[in-house]
Amino acid sequence: MMRVIILAAGEGKRLRPLTEKRPKHMIPIAGKPIIHQLIDAFKTNGVYKFSIVVGHLRENIIQYLSDGKEFGIEIEYLYQNKLHGTADALAQTENKIEETRFLVCYGDMYVSSDAIREVIKAYDDKSFDAAVTIVPTKDQKQYGIVQIDNGYVKEIVEKPKVVFPNSFANTGIYIFERSIFKGIRKTKKSRRGELELTDSIVNLKKSGFKIKPILIDDKSWIDIGLPWNLLDANKRALLNLRPNVDGEVDDHSTIRGIIHTGLATKILPGARIEGPVYIGDNSVIGPNCHIRPYTSIGRDVKIGNSCEIKNSIIMDETKIPHLSYFGDSIIGERCNFGAGTITGNLRLDKQTVRMKIKNKFIDSARKKLGAVIGDDVETGINVNFMPGITIGSGSNIGPGVNVSKNIPPNVKLLLKQNIHMTKMMGHPRRRSVTNGRNQ
Q1: Which of 25, 36, 56, 322 is catalytic?
Q2: What pLDDT does residue 49 have?
Q3: How many Å apart are CA 387 and CA 354, to the nearest integer?
Q4: How many CB atoms lie under 10 A from the CB of residue 73?
Q5: Which has more confidence, 117 or 196?
Q6: Are 302 and 332 found together in one domain?
Q7: Is 268's pLDDT higher than 90?
Q8: pLDDT (0 to 100) of residue 427
Q9: 336 with 395, same domain?
Q10: What's the chain's Rg over C-alpha atoms?
Q11: Of 192, 225, 258, which residue sits at a domain end?
């Protein structure tokens, strides 16, 4: 039976605050954690045997997937106690698996079942010693770049500083034989201080092994390394959503497009839902609210009177009771927002939204991007979030606050403090270009 090894030990620092209380592989898109979506893509293609390498907050993954029986699969767990890189993560499996050939993939991506099918087709081809799945890309600085020569992999360079012509991005889905462990033993730490699996593959190439590229459709794969990648992956997954309406739907509500509503969910009078939209079990939508396309809403969520949600991920047990707008945003679990809480998702100067990640501003290349809010955040009435800001888990934002800077976890921010902080930063509100509106 074919085995898949999923590398799911990483911390996901660039996805904070969403990874403050969960591993990145457990962030939900279209109603399921990323790792569940990944497993489904393999299962659809007849793969039922999984080894999962876990590390950071591993109990979240283990508790959710358990032994896999509930999902119709077999799972065994392996542990990377110190996060030394992807090659080190795979090395944990050397003495635990018996297969001579196996699949390996990173656990922080969205990939379609069609793409996995292309990998499965190549599995029994004995003309190569390893295979790397690739997609065309113009954004070479964000990925491991694969160069091809005479039908085989010539070189793999992680996030190159120079542009290579006719190159492809490494998607992180591989076919390996046990020879990969020899490549790992020869691997030295990269400039990031990690043992990179791509360097191990290059070691195989230098030893004369044949590395085959497998080209997949670039629309079938999304690397989830930055917060806005989650919105892209959520949209892609929702486009493949199967319609299913359970629970109670009031006759005076409007539902159009592909919609999934869970058990015991209530759609109240005046609610308007335009698919594709996913709504989890036991949630209440309405009355008189508007759920726009590409929105995923978790379990036990309340979206109330005169609220509008657009192209967003709202996680379990969060309450948005009335008079609020959330657009192009990602909201954690158990949040509670006061009336009139607004996320701005469009800059007034129409420039693309930048987000501060690990003390560095990164251009999202998106004209519309709202807020990324961690778990257990609460706001008072009339709170405004400017485009591209993050709010750490457990923070409380007082009434009337205009939030234009990232807020760390477990902070209590009141209006007077916010005015003082704005003056200290030297950015008076009247001159701020980060002020946005919602669309």
Answers
A1: 322
A2: 94
A3: 8
A4: 18
A5: 117
A6: yes
A7: yes
A8: 47
A9: yes
A10: 23
A11: 225
